[in-house]
Amino acid sequence: MHTKPRPRAMVDAMHPTDIVLDHPWVAPALWIVLHSLDYSLTLVGARLRLRGADKVFVVEGSYELNPLFQKVIDRQRWISVRFIVTLLGLAAALYVVALTCPGHDVADGLGLVLGVVVFTRVAVIGRHLHNIWLYRRVVRRPDAVTGSIRYDRPTVYAITSSTYLHYAVLLALAAAVVSDPWIIGGALGNAMIALYSSILGWRSGRRQSRAVSAIPSTSPDDRS
What we know:
This protein is mostly helical. The chain has a domain at 12-152. The chain is 72% helix and 3% strand. It contains 9 helices and 2 strands, in the order αααβαααβααα. Strands 1-2 form a two-stranded parallel sheet. α3 (26-50) packs antiparallel against α5, α6 packs across α8 and α7 (153-178) runs antiparallel to α8 (181-214). The longest helix has 34 residues, at 107-140.
């Protein structure tokens, strides 16, 4: 006895893009949940760093790498104007895009946008969870790590760029097999974060070079 195959429409209806098209509120809800988790976990990681992890992992500058949120995170603010603006602003934009999307024929564009949003936030949240686990272990068990390691700002950005580039490559390989707009968007989004981190690292390195060159050198005649 052969099982009757399901109609194509039923299979397509299970795709996340179709769910968003049928229920436009899902798109902003995804962003609100993921962005809130990102912001909250950033604050948790920053606090754990100040509780003792910074003695082992000496990182130059703010715990937050995005210049837009550095001052807010450094001040340990759970609620900030910038967070609310980015939270509600992009949520509204996603809702409008999902609501006004002409239909399933152009759904790939919507899937691409949602892939950028979801996969980049998931990657960021994964890094936060790793940092929190590591910082808690160091704080609770001081003997777990001996000594300390110092990262200057350009190195921090270089590590970050490399990490997101790895995510982008993995998602690109998956996209080559599956060819799904969400995965393609995730690969593009993580690649953009990698590029942005590289630019921030390059700028930070230039600032360091200028600061070093501005320090007057001491000649043997000056010391005599």
